[in-house]
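Session log. Operator J.P. requested a structure for one protein chain; no other inputs attached. Running the standard single-chain path with token output.
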Amino acid sequence: MTAKTNPFKAPKAPAAKVASGAAGDDAKASLLLRKAESGYAFPLLDGVANQFARSLRELVRALGAPTVQVERQAAEVVRFADWTAAAAPAIFWRYHAPPMKGPVLLAGARPLILQLVDIFYGGKGQLAAERDELTDAEDRFAARLGRDMGLQIATAWGDKFAIAPELDCVTGDPAKLAAVRADDELLVQRFVLRGGPLDGRSIACAYPVAALRGIAGAEPTPDARDTSPADAAWKATLSGALKEVRLPVRSVLARPEISLVKLLGLEVGDIIPLTIPRNVPVTVAQPQFRGRQHRRSQWKCSHNDRAYRKRIGS
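Structure written below.
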């Protein structure tokens, strides 16, 4: 009997920073948030926006538009409902960005995504017609673009204030952007593309004002006073490790029956006919899903076991 070692090790909680770093944190907070006549100003975000504009330009050029430029516009504070209404029709990306107590949001016009897909696959970025729905390829491209822009956001913040944006939602419906209410104020930075077929298209980056005040120490969210940065970093590390755990996927496509005589007479090259039903069960760990064959070597989910989901509280 052999003992199996556990391949998954829980990450250790990082030790909290000593008090000697408090002065540095206060300096960063003062750069991030200052009192202004209209309420609050966020001077540190100017540098973040400049860096993000440069990296966004390089990203779009790498996708196949080598002459594009990115123009950063002045930031403004708007209501969430007004921002989403002005951006529509758009694709929205939402990021969980600890230790910020609120999401980071990006929005790009839906025609921009269609043009970028066309350019990426060798086209000239010309729109044949406006569509309300994206194809599977366009959905995958939007998700990939969102992950790349999330890395750029993290780089733009850099040593100014370390955040770790993690993409958790890509949608064309602003109602699905949970954790943001219609009346919540957002600090919105717009980045306008210039040159070629993408001229005039824009991508907007939005931060909840309450979340910015929270990380600056001016107006913490209700649980911010009781949660240390070490706790937030440990939770983010644990969450990332859990998402990397690999689960076995098992599916039985068919269970034919043959007589004993045929079984004993089988030879090399003989064929046993298989009848694959339209709906095939697939088991991932414990929950069971049902679906049908999608293309030659793919499986498309059409139903999941809601009873199991209820048992685990999802």
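Operator note: The longest strand covers residues 185-194.
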